[in-house]
Amino acid sequence: MTQLRPHKSPIRVKSASVGEELEVQTSKKSDFVVVANRLPVDRVTGDDGEASWRRSPGGLVTAIVPVMQRREGAWVGWQGSPDEDLEPFTAEGMTLVPVRLSGQDIELYYEGFSNATLWPLYHDVIAQPVYRRRLWDAYVRVNERFAQATADIAAEGAVVWVQDYQLQLVPKMLRELRPDLRIGFFLHIPFPPMELFQQLPWRREILEGLLGADLVGFQSPDGASNFVRLSRRFCDLKTQRHEVMLDDRTVRAGAFPISVDANELIALVGTPEVQKRAAQIREDLGNPACVLLGVDRLDYTKGIQQRLRAFTELFKDKTLKCGDAVFVQIATPSRERVEEYRILRDEIELQVGRANGMYAELGAPIINYMHTSYSRDELAALYLAADVMVVTPLRDGMNLVAKEYVACRADLRGSLLLSEFAGAANELHRAFLVNPYDIGGTKHRMYEAMHASPVERARRMRSMRKRVIEHDVDRWANEFLVALEGNQRHAVSAG
Ligand code: GDG
Asked: Probe ligand 1: pick from 218, 295, 394, 418, max atoms within 8 Å of CB?
């Protein structure tokens, strides 16, 4: 391990956009620091060639930004391109602290240990995890860099909130550098059971990394229980319910199911532009009796192949014929340099081609597949245009798409087909629940969702909307932070 530097100061804050030269010398530190693999901004180049930063879309950013602004917070993360040294700068009212990643760091720490080792291991080993010491070494090295950058920006006694599986060693490293901090960690993906986690050659180091936090949050109570059980087994620690006892302090684990910004989505689908666009989408699809929709990062955890197989079988069985239903599958490009993802893309494209080759008619494909990403407005219009939202992950920490769809359907007219293996299923009991490994069962449930009466759809949707609106992303962030700062026992019931 490289030597960590102790608390340094002062920092230099660069203002506003990338292009701006002005640099402010300051020793100002932050009382609230978020640490995540990525900064919450994307660099955009205007027509004039000027670069500037724009806030990234997404619930996490939306939820945390108001807290950041209230508390003059800082966000530590990678800015998205390799080999670039940037001074801290301010954008969107936040201090942003870039962490440099080299091309090799991206390959070994990000694509390697994060996405080829941890991601498959934490998702039920759907793909075979890669265990390589070189990847692990890079993970340690990069986590140290994040810990150091955080130690440098955090004020005395600050609250630090570390996000996700790429940074599981940061809590321990940070505590060693800055014992005065209050440290929370939230894992966005599932935390696996003993039988799987046990495979990891660095299982003890990961657990010890997380145990550097005061509070470790998970999407579901199962994740929290797995963590406590594993700490007892592999770190020889005493545990009691959702607590792990260390010599000098207690680490708490809890379930904090993440959610969406329901009000923002409700406002968005209320605009005439989005409503008009939704009607246009249906028309462009040939006004079929039923539109089914899938929106996912192109990832093997999302069960895209399983849902398309179930849908295609309805045509094979002659339960459906061309014109009865159209499936729109948006597959946002993701991790394209990781081998498994390239293979998956080819397989899905072959599957879509075959299905259309067999069952489509001229100018009327049964599956419209788009390998691209869309604006938030277009996504909202797609949600409004869909009669059945199909969310069938083989394993998913939460799945925000399911909650976004529910938030958008104020008209109570859509049906949600949802995998039992998504964290969202713990809350959205009134979805049409499926086991995506069971193609026959999924096919029948899909048909049922397509043909549910308006009264039944409305009954189910009303109940799910109540849950999503009452438990929005703002509440998620507040509950986590109250639990972290209030030093109180806390577990959000999931259901
Ligand atoms: C991880 C966990 C957990 C998708 N395509 C476009 C687009 N999206 C947006 C969706 C949604 C988000 O991306 C995807 O979130 P998910 O929750 O569905 O999935 P992951 O990316 O795997 O997220 C997951 C989440 O973290 C949060 O804790 O729920 O379990 O795996 O918001 O709308 N957004 C835009 N264009 C697209 O084409 N604008």
From this structure: 295
Adjacency order of strands within the sheet including 325-332: 367-370, 325-332, 290-297, 388-391, 415-419, 432-434
Q: Is 396 a catalytic residue?
A: yes
- pLDDT tens digit sequence for 61-115: 877 887 887 788 999 999 999 999 999 999 877 899 999 999 999 999 999 999 9
The string of pLDDT tens digits covering residues 250-278 is 999 999 999 999 999 999 999 999 999 99
CA of 363 from ligand 1 middle (Å) equals 31
Angle (CA) 462-466-472 rounded to 5° is 140
> Which tens digit of pLDDT belongs to each residue from 284-330?
999 999 999 999 999 999 999 999 999 999 999 999 999 999 999 99
- Residues 188, 185: Cα–Cα separation, whole Å: 10
Closest ligand 1 atom to Cα of 423: 30
Domain with CATH 3.40.50.2000 in the chain: 11-258+475-485, 262-470
Dist. CA 266–CA 274, nearest whole Å? 11
> What number does the ligand 1 atom closest to the CA of 258 have?
28
Say if ligand 1 is within 6 A of residue 477 CB: no
Q: Which of 296, 295, 290, 343 is nearest to 321 (CA)?
A: 290
Closest Cα partner for 282 from 201, 368, 200, 208?
Answer: 368
| pTM (predicted TM-score) | 0.93
Per residue in 352-374, pLDDT tens? 999 999 999 999 999 999 999 89
197 pLDDT tier (thresholds 50, 70, 90): very high
For ligand 1, say whether the CB of 189 is within 6 Å of any of its atoms.
Answer: yes
Q: Centre a 10 Å sphere on the Cβ of residue 149 and count the other Cβ atoms it contains.
A: 22
Among candidate residues 42, 124, 137, 188, the one labeled active-site is 188
Rounded to an integer, what distance in angstroms lies between the CA atom of residue 349 and that of residue 9?
Answer: 52
Ligand 1 contact via 391 beta carbon (within 6 Å): no
- Concerning whether 188 is annotated as a catalytic residue, the answer is yes
The topology under which CATH files domain 262-470 is Rossmann fold (3.40.50)
Name the class of domain 11-258+475-485: alpha beta
How remote is the CA of residue 308 from the centroid of ligand 1, in Å? 20
- Residue 247 CB partners (closer than 8 Å, separation 6+): none
